[in-house]
Amino acid sequence: MYLPNIKGRIEKDYPLKKLNTWRIGGMTELAVWPRDTEELVSVIDGCRKNNIPFLLLGRGSNVLLPDHGFKGVVIVVTAMDSIRWHGEEVTAEAGYPLMRLAREAGESGLSGLEFACGIPGTLGAAAAINAGAYGGKIGDLVKKVSVLTAEGKIEIIPKNQIAFGYRSSSLLEKECIVLECTLSLHPGDQAVIQAQMQGLMAKRKEHQPLEYPNAGSVFRNPVGDSAGRLIEQAGWKGRRLGDAQVSEKHTNFIVNRGNASSTDILTLIQVIQTDVSEKFDIQLETEIRVI
Ligand SMILES: Cc1cc2nc3c(=O)[nH]c(=O)nc-3n(C[C@H](O)[C@H](O)[C@H](O)COP(=O)(O)OP(=O)(O)OC[C@H]3O[C@@H](n4cnc5c(N)ncnc54)[C@H](O)[C@@H]3O)c2cc1C
User: Which catalytic residues are annotated (predicted)?
Assistant: First the structure.
């Protein structure tokens, strides 16, 4: 079996459940936590040379991982978390937690990341996905990113060469791995920024089922509509399949009420898609990534 030669943590036969916020999935043959770009590049290089499938994960807050596990290497970037503040800009490695970044920016009187204070993912995934909330999105703040291209080259890509869409970007389409990201923020009043973040957090606690394992919004909102509204109108609020349940609090969330399997969640997703399509002639697409 291929074993990367890195100083970062390495675990054999590791439960995927521990690597995602839904707490779902079988075992992975190997999980590794590279500590910096050099280690990440060497693991990916090793996987490619040895023809071993790999899966990149941050906090696992936007993925549905398989019950049958992963035959390959799961590369978790959370140990890549160095950060440099320079004036109104900040550069951090891919694994830096977005919520911490938003909080620290606020504490330094830097505005722009308020919307991200409740998004429980990493900066790298957020840049690749163009994570956003309450009208803000990461793409608007990105100045440049450093990536590992699908061809194995490290490149710095300035903002004007990245196309950001709704929960998507050209980085994702080109299978670039974000190594580091520089954001441009702007000065603001510390008290105002913090009050705004507290307000947004309170809103999340009121409207999102944060008491159960979940992966945020399951479906993308169709243009001019809300996936949650359609799901509720179709009568799915609170309905369960095994331990997978359409949240009572927010119908675009599916929560794990204990021992939900990936198959339970996926089946629920598919029956909702079929039902919403039949009732409203709208095809709901998933926002979460099904692995
Ligand atoms: C309670 C809750 C609330 C949420 N609210 C929001 C919200 O308001 N707005 C929002 O946009 N999202 C929200 N999410 C979803 C999620 O937190 C974001 O999409 C987040 O950006 C995902 O980061 P992650 O590190 O968890 O990514 P992961 O789930 O680990 O990975 C997601 C995808 O990105 C890829 N990826 C991971 N790291 C990188 C990298 N460095 N470079 C390239 N690709 C990479 C993975 O391979 C995978 O395909 C929420 C989730 C939860 C659980």
Answer: 167, 217 (proton donor), 287
